[in-house]
Fold:
Amino acid sequence: MTVSSLQPLDPKQFDHRCALHLLQRAGFGGTPQQAQALADLGVEQAVDYIVNYKKLPDPDPPNVDDYDKDIIKPPTPTERSAIRAARNSGDEKMVDQYRKERQSRQRADRKQIAEMEQWWFRRFVSTPRPLEEKLTLFWHGHFATGYRSIENSYHMYLQNMFFRKNAMGNFKEDLVRGIIHDPAMIKYLNNDKNKKQAPNENLARELMELFTLGEGDGYSEDDIKEGARTLTGFAVNDDDFVLRPNLHDTGTKKIFGRTGRFDGDDFIDLIFTRPSASTFIIEKLYRFFVNDLPHGETADSKAFIRALSKKFKQNDWNIKPVIKAVFLSQHFYEEANRNAIIKSPVQLIVQATRSLNPPQRKKMAQTLAVASDIMGQRLFAPPSVKGWDGGRTWINTSTVFMRQNTLLYLLTGQRPDSNAWEADGTHFDAMQLVAGKTRTPKTTIKYLLSSILNVEKPENDRIATLEDYIKTQNNKINNETVTGLLTLITAMPEYQLC
Amino acid sequence: MSHHSDNEFESTSSTGSTNPYSRRLFMQQGMAFLSMATTVPLFMQRSAQGIMIPLGSLVSSQAGVPEDHTLVVIQLGGGNDGLNTVIPYGDRSYYKNRPQLAISAPGKSSNGSGTALPIPGADGFGLHPNLTGLLELIDDGQAAIIQGVGYPNPNRSHFTSTDIWHTGNHSGQGYGWLGKYFDNTCAGKPNPDGSIAIGNKAPLALLGKTQKAVNFETEELFKWAGGIGNDDLEQPYSDINRKETSQSNANDSQLDFLLRTSLDAQVSSDRIRAAVSKRPLINYPDGQLAQQLQLIASMIRADLPTRVYYASLGGFDTHANQLNSHSNLMKQLGDALNAFQKDLKKQGNTGKVKTMVFSEFGRRVAQNGSGGTDHGTAAPMFVIGDGVQNGLLGKHPSLTNLDSGDLKFNTDFREVYAAILEDWLGADSKAILGKSYTKFNMFSA
Structure:
């Protein structure tokens, strides 16, 4: 199994269900009509439409000026000496004034990061380029950087723009090279403290362990030590990368058995001579887009990942050909890979919003951002440099209810944090989802189950349960009862999968 | 900012009907018709009644430690001012450093906050005047106050220091110390009801590699809310989420796993809501912490198979005008602990519950210019229950031998953890804390 692993799907097989599967995995799902439009394009054009998203106009592109970049500023040398003088002379009033000023800036900055979270949720829901956003989220989780540590919202925003811009770029040249020059990452992994005189290994270690090669895969502790030296002096000046020559170690280093006066950029080139540089990220992409492999790799997944890694290397670590090959492959559409991934909180919320069309509620983005946090995924704040573990770790007895109640909020306005209904006068139009056909309870139920869960044949007992419910409603199909059906379908364990 | 329109979730559809994401398409195209064939159900439908969480996973790893030992952890969030909690009224430098904030010695005139409550057997040290509830527990032989607890190279960030206390290691990275306790004792099998936190998120302390905590703010939020406005949905919801599936096995499908967790959640919710629906045996005071402890006491009374409960009280980050706010917090804390202990006594459960109180750090020795205190280091911990060495334990940190204005700790918090893990929970503390710590001597022999 080499070339045949990437064998494309027979175009004749690309039906509505395939299109919806593609829409869910390459983005955040959509309506049956959107899936049908993709299906009608045929697999090649559909994938092209999704992958070449830059052809689609972005109606509301993020801009560097959208947020205040000056909330958090390091003190100027003059301020610093004034504070020091006040401290030494015991001028408590002055010290206090500086402290208050700093605290009020930190408060303003926390407010700004909360606004950014909400903005990103709005973008997830409204973008015409879902794959761009999905990849941006993937890179955010891969090159994980947390606001809690760096306490600078604007740097998080710049990093977010960086991920989006290079979402489908070259892994080595754009993403990895870019990240060692990224202010938020440099601060997060303390590289601003990495000095020739006192090296700090944090960035060098994670660069290999978490970002490119995988733990212990093709490097030694000495390679980390020497790699750290190449990154000395890689620092931040205000909002920009700066190389501080007096802190940078220009001496000879020995990495992977090679010797030279390497700097950080050489270090990246060296890392990409290691075999796992072509496999590690591919396996992670596979788990994100194809199957999260709760029991580890299977023979099929192994063969596919191997073939994909080969393609990745042949294409000089460009992401696009790899992503395209995945979405065109027969493997991606195999039954074993459908409904095989546990939705992340963002996926759960955004997919429900994009496919069920709930009304816009008051403070909706805020409510959803907080709900996502409670479900374990706070944007701009992954739990550690490892990012979100994902898969089954999303699900426990507490998040089960939070997930169900957040979906309930989308449909009915009943808040997930208080059980009270949002009194904003909005009204969910459930009939839009079954419009155009006069249907019996049975056909309505079957239609909703199959389209929302994207299954060919709904389970009999699920049908029976929903029919029992409709019987208690005198077999009426109206806005209220269809909303009832939807609250039940979204409360099904199977709705947690995509 | 252009993104922040009032129309929060405006859908974009400017590119017309060739855009598959356009909402307009929705109106223009008919419904797709999918196959309607039926299929055989994959899982047997069985009532969830009688399904209990296996108790075998609760067996402790060490012989001789009873299986019902329970730990309640209370976190004082924001950094509690230790020097105004346990007051070194015999030390002049305390008054020198805190001209406005110091609490007067017993019998002296006060600054409006009252005078320190003398701690029996501890000359020169008193409790905050509002900690009468705690003093009563000391009088009753049930409270240990461990002075000057901290760790080397103290971190003054709330987040990082909290993570350090939760993980028990200085990087603040990795799993929680109590999560690891479950990981270690349950042979890798998560114990669904092993730990319960009151709050909308489970604290890192309870997060293990396999162990996950149950958490909820109020029992009303620990259930599906869809039936609240529509009774007719309860039965179908229950049918959907109480579907039994195969036991956990090495190759279970994603759906098996989800069905199992959903069923666990229902059972857990039923059990917890039944437990807390009973009227408590005593009246609890008002306040966030008292409410949480009331919930916890009712779950202990109902004999849930839970070994660790977690509660928290916030508001301790007293940078400005702290006299009043800190006094109120002390009152809440002392009264809540007192009520909780009285409740346990009435239940006859004081012998099986120990309560540990901590904060991520103390505060600076000197007051700041705003009538408050800034982030500091070492602070006291409390351990409450039958069989603790009563009263003031450990050594109070010096107020003159400081580390750039901060107290030097005398007891590493992991020595307290080690004692709790070994002597109360019967676990191997070295395996959990990654290092062998001397157990802090706080339990009666």
In short: Chain B has one domain: 55-433. Chain B touches chain A through 86 residues (CB under 8 Å).
